[in-house]
Write a structure and sequence with these properties.
The protein is mainly β and about 80 residues long. It is about 0% helix and about 20% strand. The protein contains no helices and five strands. The protein has strands spanning about 1-5, 20, 30, 35-40, 60-65. The chain has a three-stranded antiparallel β-sheet, with no helix packed on it. A two-stranded antiparallel sheet has the order 2-3. The radius of gyration is 13 Å and the shape is elongated.
C-alpha cells in the first residue's frame, strides 16, 4: 500500500493501521510490515527501511505491506481516500 501523508511522519502511528478480524484476539490482528517513507512524488526514499525520517515535512508518502484475508482495513484512525 502507499499513503500520501498530510501529517509529519513522526505523527503517523503504525499501530493504528490494522485489520480487525472477528474471532481473532486484537493482539493478533494484522498490522503493517516493511514501512518505507518516500518523497512527495513517491520516487525516492527519504530514510532507511523501518526508520522514520527526521523531518517535519507533511508532504511525503509511506509504503508498506499488510496482509488482509477478511475484515476491513484501517479499523481505527486512518482511512483510504
Amino acid at each position: 500500500m502507499e499513503m500520501a501523508l498530510t501529517i509529519p511522519p513522526q505523527e503517523l502511528q503504525f499501530s493504528k493501521i490494522i485489520v480487525p478480524e472477528e474471532g481473532v484476539k486484537e493482539m493478533d490482528w494484522q498490522t503493517v510490515l516493511a514501512e518505507q517513507f518516500l518523497n512527495n512524488n513517491g520516487t525516492e526514499r527519504i530514510c532507511d527501511l523501518y526508520e522514520t525520517p527526521d523531518t517535519d515535512n507533511s508532504d511525503s508518502r509511506v509504503t508498506f505491506f499488510i496482509y488482509v484475508t477478511s475484515g476491513s482495513l484501517f479499523g481505527r484512525e486512518y482511512s483510504l481516500c
